[in-house]
Amino acid sequence: MKLLLHTCCAPCSVYCIDELRSENIEPVVYWFNPNIHPYMEYKARRDCLKEYTKSINVEAIFEENYGLDDFCKNVSNKLDTRCQDYCYPVRLEQTAKYAKEHGFDTISTTLLVSPYQKHDIIKELGEVIAKKYGVEFLYRDFRVGFREGQAKAREIGLYMQKYCGCIFSEEIRYYNRNQAMARLPEGFEFLPVKYLVNIKKERGNKEQYLDLLLEADPSKEMINKYLSNGELFVLTYKDEPACVAVVIKIDNHTVELKNIVTRENYRGKGYGTKMIKYLVDNYKTKYKKMVVGTTQNNIPFYVKQGFDKYEKTINNFFIDNYDEEIFDGNMQCVDIYYYSKDLKKNNVVSNV
Ligand code: SF4
Fold first, then answer.
1. 92 CA → ligand 1 middle, Å
2. Ligand 1 site: residues with CB under 6 angstroms?
3. Residue 111 CA: which ligand 1 atom is closest?
4. How many A from CA of 40 to the centre of ligand 1?
5. Per-residue confidence at 167, pLDDT binned at 50, 70, 90?
6. Are 114 and 201 contained in the same domain?
C-alpha cells in the first residue's frame, strides 16, 4: 500500500502515524490546509509539522496554499455547514488528486483522530472522493487515541493550537466561548489515556519478564544478582507489557537503575522516557540520587533524561563479567560508564 496521509497538524498526526506504523504502514504525510487563519497560525502549524516529521523520519509533502480569499468566498453564505460543504472536501479532494497524479494508491486523513470533527461525514466524503479519483480510502477510527496522541504531543513540546483553524472557529473559541465551545458528539466517550498506558510495580513473579530483561542485559546470571532484591516496574499499553525497569537500593541516599528495556514493537513511542519519569517521581521522596551504568552508545540518551553527572568508569566491565562478547549495534561493549541524576532537582527530560 502506498498511503498519502492528509495531515492537518503535528499533534493530530502523532497517534495516527504511530498507529499506522504499528500496522507496518508507512504513510507519506501530505500538508494541504487552506483553512488556517491568520497566516502566522498557518505558519506555526506548518512549521511544527515540518520539524516533527523530520524528527520521526517520515516523508512529508507540503502543498503551500494559504487560501484565505477562496476560503472566505466559499463559506461566507454557508457558515453553519462550512466544514462539510467546503473545508473537508477541498482538502480531501486535493489529497486524492495529488495521490492519483503521484502514484499513491490509498489516501487517509488525520482529521479522523479528532472527536471534535464530524467523523462520519469525513469518512463518507473520504470514500466518495477517493473513489472519484480511483484510489482507496483507508478508514480508521483514530479517535480512541486522541488523548494519548495529544498527551505525547504536549510531552515532546509540539505547538498546540487552541482552535480548529478558520477565523470562524477562532471566534467561537475566544469571542463567545462559554456559549459556543466545541462539544463532543452525543454519546462519544474518550477512553482515558490512563487505561491505555499504565505503570505499576510488579509485586508477583518478576521472572516472567526475564526474556525482556535479557534484551538489555544478555546475562541471566547478572540479572539474577539484582532481580531478587530489585524493584521491577512494568509499563503496559492496552494491558500488554511494553517496557520494564529494575531499580535497586545502593544506600540510604542512592538507587541504581539496573535495567530498562522497551519491547521492540513499542520503541520510539516515548515509553522509556515515561518510565524514567515515573521512576524519578517514585524514588525522589526517599532518595537523593539515581545512578545508571551504561554503554558508550547510550550515554546521550541518559544525559537527555537528566543523568547528567558523570560518576565513574569501570574499565573492561563487559569483558570481565560476561562469558560472551557483548555488542551494542556494531560497537563491542568494553567499559561501563556511570552517570547520575539528582532526584531533588527539577530536571527537564527530553522525549525519545
Ligand atoms: S471549523 Fe475547522 S473544519 Fe470547520 S471550516 Fe473551520 S477550520 Fe474547517
1. 13
2. 35, 82-83, 87, 164-166, 168-169
3. 3
4. 17
5. very high
6. no
| Residue-range definition of the domain harbouring residue 93 | 3-191
Answer whether residue 297 shows pLDDT above 90: no
At 107-162, the pLDDT tens digits run: 999 999 999 899 999 999 999 999 999 999 999 999 989 989 999 999 899 999 99
Nearest residue (by CA) to ligand 1, atom 4, is: 83
Q: How far is CA 63 from the centre of its chain?
A: 24
**CA 170 to ligand 1 centroid distance, Å:** 10
Q: Does residue 349 surpass a pLDDT of 80?
A: no
Nearest CA to ligand 1 atom 6: 166
Nearest CA to ligand 1 atom 2: 164
Task: Please write down the HEC assignment for all residues of 69-88.
Answer: HHHHHHHCCCHHHHHHHHHH
Q: Quote the number of domains for the chain.
A: 2
The pLDDT of residue 348 is: 43
Distance CA 91, CA 101 (A): 16
End-to-end CA separation in angstroms for the chain: 28
Mean pLDDT in the chain? 90
Cα 316 versus chain centre, distance? 37
Pair (227, 299) in one structural domain? yes
| Ligand 1 centre distance from Cα of residue 35 (Å) | 7
As a whole number, mean pLDDT of residues 294-312 equals 89
193 CA → ligand 1 middle, Å: 26
Residue 124's CATH number: 3.40.50.620
Distance 247 CA to ligand 1 centre (A): 49
**Would you call 254 exposed, middle or buried from its count of C-beta atoms within 10 A (0-12, 13-18, 19+)?**
middle
Radius of gyration (C-alpha) of the chain in whole angstroms: 24
Residue with the nearest Cα to atom 5 of ligand 1? Answer: 83
Pairing mode, strands 309-314 and 231-237: unpaired
Residues 185 and 249 in one domain: no
Protein residue with its CA nearest to atom 1 in ligand 1: 169
Q: Are residues 275 and 212 in the same domain?
A: yes
